[in-house]
Specification:
Chain B: Keywords: Acyltransferase, Endoplasmic reticulum, Lipid metabolism, Membrane, Pyridoxal phosphate, Sphingolipid metabolism, Transferase, Transmembrane, Transmembrane helix. The complex is a heterodimer of chains A (538) and B (656). Chain A has 20 helices and 15 strands. Classes of the chains: A alpha/beta (538), B alpha/beta (656). Bound molecules: pyridoxal-5'-phosphate (PLP).
Chain lengths: 538, 656
């Protein structure tokens, strides 16, 4: 005992002596005092920085000696083989084919996709030669085909050619892009906005631009696939709340806060991620409540308005207009020019800080060519049209109401979508299984107080449904409607790749480009198709 | 430089040439016979006029030498330069029997490396001092970088240090706004900053600059020409919206025509198209590999590939850039070891490389990769974003360049943003794989479909490279203008046996699409390919003869010129931009490249004329002397000699 402590003491004196010699020698170097003071103070101020500087120096040395391949041979699971053994193993190895051939079912799925010949619009012509009423394509406000936009687009084509031939950082930023970004920001009432060249690739870059490992995201269980991919890339801590359930959200926020206080973990970035109108079922978020909660718990809100921008609100500004919430309350407002403005690409609107950050950190913004000028101008002009003719949105809402009036009270149809949503999901309502939707599905056996586990994406009582059967029936409905001259579509999903299984549905997209009469007629056809296919099985 | 023609003198020369041409009996608007040389087509005065609102006496809008009577051009000179000299042509092709090699990477003298590090250290130290002081005395400016009111900073001072303290200093070299066609020249919107680049103010004036930065390899970025006419017709007929995803209700006949044409172009069984190049990788790779699979990725692969691989959940291993020895060692290791921990054999191994690396100018060493593939049974995915169209005697990309059968490569991916002047990307391969990706990739189910104008640009530019097989009973050859006005009815299907190999049968193109003779006989495409190949070799070799350190191969239209010093990037860029004939270039540094190898990148185009490249060489020569950039070993030529002997230099099998 005393022996060991003695030797320890020896060691310490040796260490301290060598330290003092090192120190005196160090201070003999001219200018060293300054360095030492700098290191000390910066260390006090921010220990991470010392580390950074050390790493930078090491990095510099490493780059000099550059060797950038990564070997794995030090890993403890490494097995040593000699060359002959390796050759044998190589010979033995037979890989799976790169792609499995399609099953008959998958082939039928591909074959069932309608081909539109000529322009897509309210009454497109199909490959069969038939002219149909279109309740499937996104053209909420009928901007596709607008004459004014066409003139502007053609003029742009002559001045710019088609492609931009470069990413935004390298001369791909054209004046029309700057103009569209300004138009979107002005239209929504945010400080700034940034445009991406594909809507689907927007939010999956926006999320990881801000949310890093260690940050916290509280997300809705029903978020769309693009958001799921963004969450996956970001690698941050994710907590889930029940689909569109503000009470559940508050509960999760509360529990995260408690956890943080218990662990005394440092302050990290925290985000609520959800959608305006959900891609999965057309439900609508309660924006005022979301904003209230995010302020109360000091979260930032990332709101995906892909389906609500250009379809709800007095002039199509989306949820913020509908609920009269200033858009500046939403920290990152993501939307789509492809669905909302019948052009292409997506955007993220927010403060200057939010937008400028993405200009360097939004992966699919930085590493991809900017949008073709012609389509950029088409989007700008689209905003103009919306701004100047609010009657389009009125027409759209009337059409939505007309369709809903016919489909709302059909026995075999369940509609989880919000009454104002131009995207209407039609699910099958079974008489025996009382599981019309996820939210109301509360089997009597479970006690009311127990909640879903925020750590798991699976809700506590997931709704039960037979995907295969329902998809098959819905496809029959789609085929039947098509035979009667109405183009509708099943909501397509990557089964097995979505985080939770989404209930099959037929997705309607109502447009202002059709007359109310046409909409009613088409809705009646859809109703009849449902009754014919599903009704008889009930 | 000495004899810049004025607009007036130029126009009078053009009209004289016109008059002479008329005297020879050819009306300027008529279309000459199909066999005539591509650069010698029809003429009119508007080939030099454009309406971007800049001064045209800038030395770029007009050719130095007015055309002679039999040189008549249809392109706008500022978009696609006039060059009739058939000597300034070359073919991009790998010399059979030689191994692929890129220019050996030379290290600069040690004092350069040392001062490079020192300059980084100085800038970093300065940055820290400014942060230190700033945080104490100018808190308001740092508010968004520090925790505030219970919110963590969106982007902490620590995370954003590099951006704020290094990149911001030279931000005037990035994201310069432009307008108009990104062709041979581009119009910059002039700007300045009063707050050290934090914000930029547009002055309202414009500058036309020689554009050696856009990915416009074949010069299809044009506001006037057959492709633009086709797009115009498409907008008239189809509008500009597809209306949804491919599997829901945005599936047009144009999509299917374009996909079939891409497959034909690439020489594969099938192809699919996605509306964004980046997303083609990020959405499709997850449909290809997953848990239990291994992706072997070149360390310098593009961000979109990394994004896709990360989403796929497959394991990833990297090998040293283009180092085939390192690749083989890695293959031997991973196949013998199997999956981590369990040592189960991998389900499959996918090697992902790029055809042409956009920051390096190097190409994937495909001949060796294909040999390794036979032995190690991995699958090959080649991202041809930069090489398709730009390389190979027929513009079909790296496989064409090396003379490899494209069907031996499992997946050929590429984008339309570059050579085709469009947008989006494709995946080509055998039908089984492509169909699987249609069902299992994310694009078709969730992403918006490509729009009709973009599809048409792809179809038109691709047909222009391929040439078109017209139906057997042609419209009367005596009236070639009929070819311009094709009947709106679909053309009769041309049997596969009658299609000239490699061309597009007219029945595969939209029936309303206007065709011109130079497109039908493929002469337009051939001219573009051959001009690009000449320009490429000329600049690559010219720069090396001047003594610059460059990377890549001589046939790469992407030419990186090494600067090393971060400070020289800004100076180089500014000096090029403010010359009498302004030239815009791209500078890249860490993190896009290793810390010490900051560089300038030139992207050549078929639209450039030899005089343009001369101009670039002269500019580089001057600035290179000033900035001490010429450090390469090897024989040097004075710049005027290089310009003089350009054709000889390009045609040498090896650059001495
Ligand atoms: C290798 C590679 N892949 C993909 C892309 C993305 O293409 P796009 O700009 O069409 O999105 C690029 C673009 O820079 C690239 O260089």
């Amino acid at each position: 005992m005393s022996n060991s402590s003695q030797s320890l003491e020896l060691l310490f004196t040796f260490l301290s002596r060598s330290y003092t010699t090192l120190e005196t020698n160090f201070f003999k170097i001219p200018g060293s005092a300054v360095v030492a003071r700098y290191v000390k103070s910066s260390h006090q101020n921010d220990p991470g920085r010392t580390l950074l500087e050390a790493i930078l120096i090491i990095f510099a040395i490493r780059t000099l000696l550059q060797s950038r391949t990564r070997g794995d041979q030090s890993a403890k699971h490494f097995i040593q083989f000699d060359e002959k053994e390796i050759d044998e193993l190589v010979d033995e190895w037979t890989p799976e084919p790169l792609a499995q051939p399609l099953s008959a079912h998958e082939q039928a799925e591909l074959a069932s996709v309608p081909v539109i010949v000529g322009p897509n619009g309210p009454k497109p012509k199909l490959a069969s030669g038939k002219i149909v009423t279109n309740l499937a394509s996104y053209n909420f406000t009928g901007l596709a085909g607008n004459e004014e936009i066409k003139v502007a687009a053609l003029d742009t084509l002559k001045r710019f050619g088609l492609g931009s031939c470069g990413p935004p950082g390298f001369y791909g930023t054209q004046d029309v892009h700057i103009q569209l970004e300004k138009d979107i920001a002005d239209f929504l009432g945010t400080e700034a906005s940034i445009i991406y060249s594909q809507a689907f690739a927007t939010i999956s870059s926006v999320i990881p631009a801000f949310c890093k490992r260690g940050d916290i995201i509280v997300a809705d269980r029903g978020v769309n696939f693009a958001i799921q991919k963004g969450l996956q890339i970001s690698r941050c801590t994710i907590r889930w709340y029940d689909h569109n359930d503000m009470e559940s959200l508050e509960h999760v926020l509360e529990s995260v806060e408690k956890e943080r206080q218990k662990r005394k973990s440092p302050l990290t970035r925290r985000f609520i991620v959800t959608e305006g109108i959900f891609d999965h079922d057309g439900a609508m978020s309660d924006l005022p409540k979301l904003v209230e909660l995010k302020k109360k718990y000091k979260y930032r809100l990332i709101l995906d308005e892909t389906l609500s921008f250009g379809s709800v609100g007095r002039t199509g500004r989306g949820l913020t207009e509908l609920y009269n919430v200033p858009a500046s309350e939403v920290d990152m407002l993501v939307g789509s020019m492809a669905t909302g403005l019948s052009s292409c690409g997506g955007f993220c609107a927010g403060s200057h800080v939010v937008v400028n950050h993405q200009r360097i950190n939004g992966t699919s913004f930085v590493f991809s060519a900017s949008m073709p000028a012609l389509l950029t101008v088409a989007a700008s002009e689209g905003i103009n049209v919306l701004r100047n003719s609010p009657s389009i949105l009125t027409t759209l809402q009337e059409n939505v109401r007309a369709v809903r009036a016919i489909l709302d009270r059909v026995d075999c149809i369940h509609i989880p979508s919000h009454p104002a949503s131009a995207v209407i999901h039609l699910q099958i309502r079974w008489p025996t299984l009382q599981v019309p939707s996820a939210m109301t599905a509360t089997p009597s056996s479970s006690s009311k107080s127990s909640r879903s586990n925020p750590l798991l994406v699976k809700p506590r009582d997931p709704p039960q449904f037979n995907v295969e059967l329902e998809e098959r029936l819905l496809q029959e409905v789609v085929d039947e409607a098509l035979a009667q001259g109405v183009l509708i579509t099943r909501a397509k999903r990557l089964r097995g790749q979505e985080l939770i299984e989404v209930r099959p549905s037929v997705r309607l997209a109502v447009t202002a480009a059709l007359s109310r009469k046409d909409c009613e007629k088409a809705a009646a056809v859809v109703k009849a198709a449902f009754v014919k296919v599903v009704g008889k099985r009930r | 430089m000495s004899s810049l023609p004025t607009a007036a003198s130029y126009l009078s020369a053009v009209s004289e040439a016109d008059a002479r041409a008329r005297a020879h009996g050819a009306t300027p608007t008529s279309t000459p016979a199909l066999s005539m040389s591509s650069s010698v087509t029809s003429s009119s005065e508007d080939t030099v006029l454009d309406e971007s609102g800049v001064d045209v006496a800038d030395g770029l809008s007009y050719p130095r030498v007015p055309p002679t009577s039999d040189q008549v051009f249809t392109t706008v000179h500022s978009e696609f330069g006039h060059c009739a000299n058939e000597d300034y042509r070359y073919t991009s092709q790998h010399r059979a029997g030689t191994p692929y090699k890129s220019i050996p990477e030379q290290d600069p003298p040690y004092y350069i490396l040392l001062t490079t590090y020192i300059s980084y250290i100085i800038v970093i130290c300065l940055g820290h001092v400014r942060d230190f002081v700033g945080k104490r005395f100018r808190r308001a400016n740092y508010k968004h970088l520090l925790p505030w009111n219970g919110y963590a900073a969106l982007n902490s001072d620590f995370d954003s240090f590099y951006t704020r303290r290094l990149k911001l200093r030279i931000d005037d070299c990035f994201s310069h706004p432009t307008t108009g066609v990104p062709g041979r020249t581009i119009v910059l919107l002039d700007r300045y900053s009063t707050d050290y680049n934090k914000t930029m103010v547009l002055t309202g004036t414009r500058t036309r600059a020689l554009n050696i930065s856009s990915y416009n390899y074949l010069g299809f970025a044009q506001g006037k020409g057959p492709c633009t006419a086709a797009v115009e017709a498409a907008v008239e007929k189809y509008g500009w919206s597809s209306g949804g995803t491919r599997l829901e209700a945005g599936n047009l006949d144009l999509h299917q025509q374009a996909e079939a044409l891409v497959a034909r172009f690439m020489g594969t069984e099938d192809a699919l198209i996605s509306s964004m190049g980046f997303a083609t990788n990020s959405n499709i790779i997850p449909g290809l590999v997953g848990k239990g699979s291994l992706v072997i990725s070149d360390e310098l692969n593009h961000a979109s590939i990394r994004f896709g691989v990360r989403l796929s959940g497959a394991n990833v291993r990297m090998f040293k850039h283009n180092d085939m020895k390192s690749l083989e060692n890695l293959l031997r290791e991973v196949i013998s070891q199997g999956q981590p921990k369990t040592h189960r054999p991998w389900k499959k191994i996918l090697l992902i490389v790029e055809g042409l690396y956009s920051m390096e100018g190097t190409m994937a060493n495909l001949p060796i990769i294909m040999a390794l593939k036979k032995k190690y049974k991995f699958y090959v995915f080649v991202d041809e974003a930069h090489s398709v169209g730009a390389m190979g005697p027929r513009g079909r990309g790296v496989a064409d360049y090396f003379g490899i059968n494209p069907r031996e490569i499992d997946i050929l991916m590429g984008t339309f943003t570059k050579s085709f002047g469009a947008a989006g990307g494709y995946i080509a391969g055998n039908k089984e794989i492509i169909d699987r990706l249609r069902i299992q990739g994310h694009s078709f189910t969730y992403a918006e479909a490509m729009t009709p104008p973009v599809l048409t640009q792809i179809i038109a530019s691709m047909a222009s490279i391929m040439g078109v097989t017209m139906p057997k009973t042609p419209e009367k050859p005596s009236s070639p203008s009929l070819a311009l006005l094709r009947s709106p009815e679909p053309a009769p299907v041309i049997p596969e046996s009658e299609v000239i190999p490699g061309t597009a049968p007219a029945s595969a193109l939209p029936s309303w699409m206007p065709l011109v003779p130079s497109m039908i006989d493929g002469s337009d495409g051939k001219m573009r390919l051959r001009r690009l190949a000449f320009n490429t070799r000329y600049l690559n070799r010219g720069l090396r003869k001047l003594g610059f350190i460059t990377y890549g191969t001589d046939d790469s239209p992407v030419v990186p010129l090494l600067l090393f010093h971060p400070g020289k990037m800004a100076v180089f860029s500014r000096m090029m931009r403010t010359r009498a004939v302004p030239i815009i270039i791209v500078v890249v540094a860490y993190p896009a490249t290793p810390l010490v190898t900051s560089r300038v990148r030139f992207c050549l185009s078929a639209a450039h004329t030899k005089e343009d490249i001369d101009e670039v060489l002269r500019a580089c020569d001057e600035i290179g002397n000033l900035l001490d950039l010429k450090h390469a070993d090897g024989e040097r030529w004075p710049v005027e000699e290089i310009i003089e002997r350009a054709v000889e230099l390009v045609r040498m099998p090896e650059c001495p």
